[in-house]
Design goal:
Order of helices and strands: HEHE
Helix content: 40-55%
Length: 89
């Protein structure tokens, strides 16, 4: 198996799903809770820089995963937000 920087980046961001699942059950039992995921403007804007395809795709995944999870959990009073950071010069 070939481990590249890109595969490590994808693995790290996909772990967000596992971490959310660990906490969502307790939040649903308590009928309240909040999850804040960290996004990036790179998830919505193609940059063209090396390795940013993987980074941008991973951040887009976090954004849409969070939006979908919010739709599933809002009726249970569990809220999901994405803190989207922009580019710096």
């Amino acid at each position: 198996m070939c481990i590249t920087l890109g595969s490590v980046v994808i693995y790290i961001y996909l772990m967000c799903v596992c971490v959310c699942v660990l906490f969502v059950t307790g939040m649903m039992d308590r009928k309240r809770g909040a999850i804040i995921n960290i996004g990036s403007a790179a998830g919505a804007i193609p940059t063209g820089n090396p390795l940013y395809a993987v980074y941008s795709g991973s951040k887009a995944y976090i954004d849409f995963f969070s939006r979908s999870l919010y739709q599933e959990l809002k009726s249970k009073n569990v809220f999901v937000q994405v803190l989207t950071l922009g580019f710096r010069s």
